[in-house]
Write a structure and sequence with these properties.
The complex is a heterotrimer of chains A (about 450), B (about 220) and C (about 240).
Chain A (H helix, E strand, L loop, with lengths): L9 H8 L3 H23 L4 H17 L1 H14 L3 E5 L2 H14 L4 E4 L3 H5 L2 H7 L3 E4 L2 H8 L16 H12 L8 H18 L2 E4 L3 E3 L4 E6 L3 H8 L2 E7 L3 E2 L4 H13 L7 E5 L7 E7 L3 H5 L15 H5 L1 H4 L12 H11 L16 H5 L6 H14 L5 H15 L1 H17 L25 H8 L3
Parallel strand pairs in A: 1-10, 2-3, 2-4, 4-7, 5-8, 7-10
Antiparallel strand pairs in A: 5-6, 6-9
Helix pairs in contact in A: 2-12, 3-12, 9-10, 10-11, 16-18, 19-20
Chain B lengths: L2 H12 L21 H10 L3 E5 L2 H11 L6 E3 L5 H7 L21 E5 L2 E3 L4 E5 H4 L4 H4 L2 E7 L3 E2 L2 H18 L9 E5 L4 E2 L7 E2 L6 E7 L10
Parallel strand pairs in B: 1-11, 2-3, 3-6, 4-7, 6-11
Antiparallel strand pairs in B: 4-5, 5-8, 9-10
Chain C lengths: L1 E4 L3 H6 L1 H13 L3 E3 L9 H8 L4 H11 L4 E4 L2 H9 L11 E3 H8 L12 E4 L3 H6 L15 H6 L6 E2 L15 H4 L1 H17 L4 E4 L2 H13 L5 E4 H5 L3 H6 L1
Parallel strand pairs in C: 1-2, 1-3, 3-4, 5-6, 5-7, 7-8
Helix pairs in contact in C: 10-11
């Protein structure tokens, strides 16, 4: 579904990405390594497939009772002393966050990883309104300093080489030029961000899971940045998509066993912090965000994508993602899951994404909550075309194909003609306008088709 | 109509038909198995250190050896108050004095009790009442946790069962304090990141080291891991 | 039992030897095989491009041609999967349609083959056959390994099956993807080829000629000596054929 005149489509961006083959190899191998670590970790859990099935069914139950669970969560969280807000869309979410900060006369804030805030473009909004935001996850800080979006929802700067990070830190943090040692650079970031934690009165975090039963929410990090921000701040704002609920606290056992093994191959993140009440003297807020999710919930074929726990296992296994990079998807959440979530937000803008796939099915197999990702990619293609988002050229070509293939006579003639042209006038297909031919040879046209052979040799 | 009501109405209208919760999943049974070796192996694999000790004297000795340069040591274990006071200028803190979390900025070593460990991932569950201040287990440069050796559960399923039991016990015993803790966390190893070209670095924003002491009074003084 | 032979359109036009091998192989193992001459295509290229709504005539033609047979067998996992899953009005054909490998292992339950192929062979696990039709275990799942194509290939005398670094990574063909996302498609194919070459393959085989056509295009552009052969051709190769080489 790509038009090469649209500079923002996946095919064009991926072609750009593939100009540096060595870099593609490096990106591909790095992410395949993460997939391999996931396999190793999953193999150590004897009930892995049962666990996936259990998690999937818990999330099915959540979606089928979402309105009740949301009310239950709001009630329990409010009783715990957490101030609950509801945001219909990204705009409202951003305004709520800003108003909380203004109430506390805060113009500087630290933020830990939240893909939701990426989706809402919160950082830009706050900047335009005079609030400085420092992203404290190391990967996110790297892309923030570089003024670009993250390319992966778990490993934000996976597309950056250490030498490039070294140069970036030299420019912004004053580390010695040419130093690309990960240990040294991480330590420099530790000192740089520690100063931010200690001086900012407001901290914003994401939410990995919120528990309807108890009104608490869980934030998982390896770095400890969410906790460093929240426990030093006077105001803690947590932002959450409405689908991130689990019904009961004990369900966290299922999800915490699956999440990090699926994401990075670790048995669990270093910190799985359960926030229930504000610290004495602190104000704790949670913003429940819709932004298209309630609409998506009504799409029978696509609602399952709301089960997503944002582990990115699908990214790591996707042969297309590994060879095109997150930025080729031009959306906050990239990869296979992003390709089935984004068209709900804006079908026109993201109509290319469900086609950025060979439908190999690997993603569905690694998904810890068993989302039928590859089936949804196929179904989105039908919807996108039906809603009029196919190019005129493509529609014409498909109509022709349908006509040819519906009539045996036309098909046989076309086949014969095609093979004749390939044999006798090869330039008609062996040219630079034939995308197949750019880097591949065409098959050698045989003298006769199988149909012709059969007629001659077998038919009585 | 408020956003809340609009959202809830749309959600209710659009949510799929009934879908029951699956039966509780408890994972494989591990009755009678000593989980200590698994816990220690995994904790070490994720960058933590583990010591099997007979008591607090051993803990103090080992910490003195491991952190000879620790300037400020803070602990909520009364058995180690002397150790902490002996190594630092600041006295051990009393539970009644609410401290500004920022005042813990220069802590080199925090020694805290935890409730239990989880064998499958080397994590320890620690709640707010054990932390002195929420920020302490994160802001300290080095963290040491102490759990009873026999308080190791096999998987996260048993962990949440244990948490429920602990809450019920707390509920039953204390009448005035809240039944549940306002904050708690699983801590598995030192803070870390692999964001720079997948190179694992221990010590991101949280502590740069994590040491877990498994206390077993039945061990002789000579026996330690 | 009467078997209707369903040959993918591009095999009919460009790789008739694969269809011939499939026909001969099925006859060798005792089937009565007929090839309905008016068949064209299963409709998959249109459906996968989002034009499932245009495949109605194609499907009708398919049903018309194949409804009379006890079994419909095709040397193409992706075509069979499409008929089974995405063509809705298939008049109960989905119970009777089989990809060649699974027909041999599951229906005919072949346990030996009179075939010989003295070469180092890399098995490419085509995605739709593997993950769709479960021709082999999927590396993502924590489940016992199995492979129906390998099971058959191991019955072939003198064959040497090689290992691969990535056993079931997609080759990048993906239907119209191969031209719409040409850069990624070719890169995926090149990486597959490199994996096979690294492990010393002389021949790359698989159950889908579309994958092999794509890999062959890359191999020939690289002027590589490595050849592709559909699994039907290998299973149908015997000592007499070898002498004719």
């Amino acid at each position: 579904m790509s038009s090469s005149t649209n500079h923002k489509d996946h095919a064009a961006l991926a072609t750009q990405f593939n100009k540096d083959e060595a870099r593609v190899d490096w990106h591909d191998q790095t992410l395949w390594f993460v997939r391999a670590k996931r396999d190793k970790a999953a193999a150590q859990v004897p009930d892995w497939e049962t666990l996936r099935d259990t998690a999937s069914r818990i999330k099915d139950n959540v979606l089928s009772n979402l309105s009740e669970y949301l009310k239950q969560f709001e009630e329990a969280a409010t009783r715990n002393g957490i101030i609950v807000h509801w945001a219909a869309d990204a705009k409202e979410h951003n305004e709520i966050v800003l108003s909380i900060l203004r109430n506390h006369k805060v113009d500087r804030m630290v933020k830990s990883k939240s893909m939701l805030t990426e989706e809402c473009h919160l950082n830009e909004f706050l900047k335009d309104n005079g609030v400085e935001v420092v992203d404290t996850d190391l990967g996110e800080r790297v892309v923030q300093l570089a003024d670009e979006p993250p390319s992966h929802i778990v490993l934000p700067c996976i597309h950056w080489k250490k030498e490039e990070i070294g140069q970036l830190f030299h420019k912004h943090l004053g580390t010695p030029e040419g130093n690309a040692d990960p240990q040294f650079l991480t330590y420099a970031a530790r000192l740089h961000l520690r100063e931010k934690f200690l001086t900012r009165r407001a901290a914003l975090t994401g939410v990995n899971f919120a528990v309807a039963e108890t009104g608490e929410f869980v934030v998982c990090t390896n770095e400890g940045n969410a906790d460093m921000g929240a426990h030093l701040a006077d105001v803690h704002i947590a932002c959450m998509g409405i689908e991130k609920l689990v019904p009961q606290r004990r369900h966290l056992g299922v999800f915490l066993r699956l999440l990090t093994r699926s994401a990075t191959g670790q048995p669990i993140t270093t910190y799985s912090s359960h926030f229930k009440r504000p610290r004495p003297g602190q104000e704790m807020h949670i913003v429940l965000v819709d932004n298209g999710r309630s609409t998506h919930l009504g799409r029978k074929d696509f609602r399952n994508s709301l089960k997503c726990i944002r582990c990115a296992a699908c990214f790591n296994t996707c042969p297309v993602y590994r060879r095109s990079g997150g930025h080729s998807y031009h959306t906050a959440v990239a990869g296979p899951i992003g390709s089935i979530l984004s068209p709900n937000l804006d079908m026109k803008q993201y109509s290319d994404l469900p086609f950025a796939s060979t439908l190999c099915g690997s993603c569905s197999n690694v998904c810890p909550v068993k989302i039928d990702i590859h089936e949804q990619l196929y179904k989105w293609r039908q919807v996108i075309v039906q809603e009029g988002n196919a190019t005129a050229a493509k529609t014409a070509a498909m109509k022709t194909m349908s006509w040819v293939l519906s009539s045996p006579g036309v098909y046989h003639t076309a086949g014969k003609a095609g093979r004749w042209f390939m044999l006798n006038v090869p330039f008609t297909v062996k040219n630079k306008w034939n995308a197949w031919y750019l880097q591949r040879e065409l098959p050698e046209p045989p003298k006769q088709s199988f149909g012709q052979w059969y007629k001659k040799n077998r038919k009585q | 109509m408020s956003s809340r009501n609009k959202i809830l109405a749309t959600v209710k209208n659009n949510q799929p038909g009934p879908s029951d919760l699956p039966p509780d999943h408890n994972g494989p049974t591990v009755n009678g198995v000593d989980l200590t070796p698994q816990f220690i192996n995994i904790l070490e694999a994720i960058g933590g250190a583990a010591f099997l000790v007979s008591g607090y004297d051993r803990i103090a000795t080992i910490l003195r050896e491991q952190f000879p340069d620790a300037n400020r040591v803070v602990t909520s274990c009364h058995q180690l108050t002397a150790f902490a006071a002996g190594t630092s200028a600041a006295a051990a803190l009393s539970a009644e004095t609410p401290a500004d979390p920022h005042s813990f900025e220069n802590v080199d070593l925090a020694i805290l009790p935890a409730h239990f460990g989880v064998a499958e991932n080397g994590a320890c569950w620690i709640t707010e009442s054990q932390m002195i201040q929420r920020v302490l287990p994160f802001i300290t440069q080095n963290l040491a946790l102490i759990i009873p050796r026999n308080a190791i559960v096999a998987t996260m399923h048993q962990a949440y069962d244990r948490i429920a039991t602990l809450e019920a016990e707390a509920n039953a015993s204390v009448t005035n304090a809240p039944a549940t803790e306002g904050f708690a966390t699983f801590i598995a190893g030192p803070s870390k990141t692999a964001d720079i070209e997948q190179s694992l670095v221990l010590g991101a924003h949280g502590p740069r080291s994590l040491t877990v002491f498994l206390v077993d009074e039945h061990l002789s003084d000579a026996g330690f891991y | 039992m009467r078997v209707g032979l369903f040959i993918p359109c591009y095999v009919d036009q460009f790789y008739p030897q694969v269809a011939i091998a499939t026909l001969e192989l099925l006859e060798k193992v005792g089937c009565t095989v007929a090839y309905p001459p008016d068949q064209t295509c299963c409709g998959q290229p249109m459906a996968n491009s989002g034009f499932e709504h245009l495949t109605g005539e194609c499907t009708k033609l398919f049903i018309k041609n194949f409804n009379e047979f006890d079994y419909i067998v095709s040397p193409s996992g992706s075509c069979v999967l499409h008929i089974k899953e995405h063509s809705h009005e298939n008049a109960g054909l989905h119970d009777r349609i089989f990809e060649l490998v699974e027909f041999l292992t599951d229906v005919l339950k072949i346990d030996h083959l009179d075939a010989s192929f003295p070469h180092r062979v890399g098995l490419h696990q085509s995605c739709h056959g593997q993950r769709g039709l479960h021709l082999a275990q999927m590396s993502e799942l924590m489940a016992p390994p199995f492979s129906k194509p390998a099971q058959l290939l191991n019955m072939v005398k003198k064959i040497q099956l090689i290992d691969l670094d990535r056993k079931d990574e997609c080759c990048g063909f993906g239907g119209t993807f191969c031209v719409a996302e040409e850069a990624v498609s070719v890169k995926m194919g090149k990486d597959r080829v490199a994996d096979h070459e690294k492990h010393g393959a002389e021949v790359i085989t698989g159950s889908d000629m579309s994958c092999l056509m794509h890999l062959e295009g890359i191999l020939r552009r690289q002027k590589s000596p490595v050849k592709v052969k559909h699994i039907a051709e290998i299973l149908n190769s015997n000592i007499q054929h070898e002498q004719q080489h």
